[in-house]
Specification:
mainly beta; three-stranded antiparallel beta sheet; 1 helix; elongated
Length: 103
Amino acid sequence: MDQQITPPTMLPTMYLRSPGVMVWSLSLNGTEVPVTPGLAAYLVQDVTVGNVLISVEVRGRLRSKYGYLSRRYRLKVNCREYIMFRNDSDVIGFALHCVPKFY
């Protein structure tokens, strides 16, 4: 069942020198986006069991510059995330599969 469970979030503008890696640590919070009763029941059941499988989508724009040459790309990344709840304060999450697309 595909439905948005978090509000859209803007990432800050960043600069990355080549070669380099950038890691974003985001917080998922679904209090502002209503979900259907059916999805709410599935989420409650998943949290009760102690784990949930969600899909995270990131969309944005990239600009690369090398000397006087500049290019712009659109970016779309889909990640399947598996989140385990050990208790109210201990949550573990990891990506199962991420697919980046540039266009």
